[in-house]
Every structure is written in C-alpha cells, then in structure tokens.
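Practice problem: predict the structure.
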Amino acid sequence: MTAITLNFKSLITLTDEVFAQLCRSNPEMRLERTASGELIAMAPAGSESGYYNLHLSAQLWLWNEQTQAGVAFDSSAGFTLPNGAIRSPDAAWIRQERWDQLTPEQKRQFAPVCPDFVLELLSPSDSLTMIQAKLIEYLANGAQLGWLVDPGRQQVIIYRLGQAVELLNQPEMIFGEAVLPGFTLRLNSLWDR
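Answer:
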C-alpha cells in the first residue's frame, strides 16, 4: 500500500494539536503533515522493511551510545520542521547541544527542530519521488546530511547541504562524515538478504 495524501483544508485546519490528536487516535497508522497542511497516511511497514529499518537504526543508536554526541531516534519520532511540516524519518540524529536547547515540553511533543541527520529507507510501497522530495525538504529545513537507502536497487543516495546528490551502487559501507564523526553504516547484510 502506498501513502495516501488527504487534504482537509476546507473542513479543518491540521494544527499541531489536531494533528497530535489524530496520531493518538490512530496508533496503527504512521501519519505526517506536509508544510501545506495535507495529511499523509501510511500503513505500517512490511516485515522485511521493519527488519531493514531496525538494522540501520540499531547501528546509528550503537554509535551514538558510544560517542554520546547527540540523540538518536527511530521511525516513530516526529519532528516539526521550520516550514511547518511534521515529518517522521526512518532514523534521525540531533547534536546534543541542539537537543538540550529544547524545553522538556517540546521534547515530549513533535520537537520543533529539524534533525542534523536523517535516513529514509525506501520500502516497496514507497514512491521514490516522494522520498527524494522528503530528503530535499529536510535539507531545506536544516538537516546537514541525509541518506536514502534503497534495498531493492541496492543503492544509497546521499544528500549533503549545498552539494550535488551522490548515488552509490552496492556500497559495503557509508560514512557519517563531519556530521556523524566516526560513524560507519554497514550495508553488506542488507544486500545479501
């Protein structure tokens, strides 16, 4: 099942509060709000995508536990971007000093911050064009680095702030560069499945 975009503008404004209420009322759905106020509803990930997502997120979490450089998030975390969109990347990371600037209340909600790093996993039900647009949106709202991992094509597309997009075919590993110093994402087991 692909994502469905619903436009409620003529009926209701999807304020932060209304959106949060929709999310609480529909825990089985993964919901996002676009910058223009449209609701995007996605079904839960398939089992294989869940495996891939855990594999990728666990590596980010482990690196962060070792470095204590920031805060790592899985796909259930939502962030309110500066453009007003509420997005939920498959994995994300925020530098500790940026996270510490948020109030406890902001941290409990959809934190009003764009992650420094985002990772999106292309599932069979995803539209490549939509996921690419999300990565561009993250960079336009403050992300420094973004990775789009496509297990089906065995590719990674790297998005860097102010640079051309880079496509890698079957990379064994990719590196976090200056944004995630010392982080190496190992991909061999994804390609071998």
